[in-house]
Amino acid sequence: MATHPTMMRAAYYERQGPAHEVLRVGEMPVPEPAPDEVRVRVAVSGIHVGDVGKRQGYWGSTMAYPRVVPHGDGAGVIDAVGADVDTARVGQRVWVYLAQSYRPFGTAAEYTVVPGHHAVELPEGAGFDQGALLGIAGITGHRAVFAGGPVDGLTVIVTAPLGGVGRAATAVARRGGATVIATVRHAEQVDAALSAGAHHVVGLYDGDVVEQIKEIAPEGVDRIAETDLAGNIEADLEVLKYNGAIATYATGDANAPLPYWTLATKNIAVHFLSNDDFPEPANESAAADLTAAVAAGDLRYPIAARFPLDRIADAQDAAEATGAKGRVVIDL
Asked: Which of the listed ranges 8-17, 198-207, 249-258 does the model predict with the highest average pLDDT?
């Protein structure tokens, strides 16, 4: 009979602050799965700026636990299951999401436990590194597109299409039947945005953005997946149809005023998105669609840097700096 280790290496912090001041790596007990949970032997831990924000205390976040093992996303192999979980899942390759959402133990460790439905079978041919990057960014991107329902036949703008959220939004919007218009800051990003799935690319460097969008969609666009609500709201309202929608997951100025009456008279819906608290059916729909996109090769994340667990502080610092250049992972 195979035996499992009782101790594991894990990264953790016990107070919020700069990465090199608060992150530590040490040993702690291997967690046991509770009923309806699975334990995953982590192969790759993905880093998202949301993980960095929780550690830094951004957005007013506080520590709900005295010790936190960071990172919500990861991928690996199920090695144990709790009660009420099919034992046939042992040995399954999976990607996990929300590992550290309202829970103290994320994926920056050799093992993690998550609810069984938050461990999604990873398609054959998809590497652990791709699976480890789907969770926060992928599900947010999916929600940014589908918060208002299906998009088949609609026109969708995706801002920042080469970021973690934007790549997922672009892929799932196209797969959902939308015409996708991507906006980029630099000319050298055009080909990459087209490769990510955009039908049209508008350059912020190339004259009046509103006019460029109106040339592509003279009747207006239906939805916008927005990475900077404050910075882009005026242009968004110029190109949105009546009864259109904005789904926003970030902003340059958290206290900027909104043009209420313009939003109201055009009946524009604004969806404010925070990944930890999406409805569970939305998470499950996103997980299914993202897995299918990865299996088909329609969603791929470039890897900007890889680090061992011992260098988690360097890895988190790098995740703040890479942006559209790619994602950062930790190899366990």
From this structure: 8-17
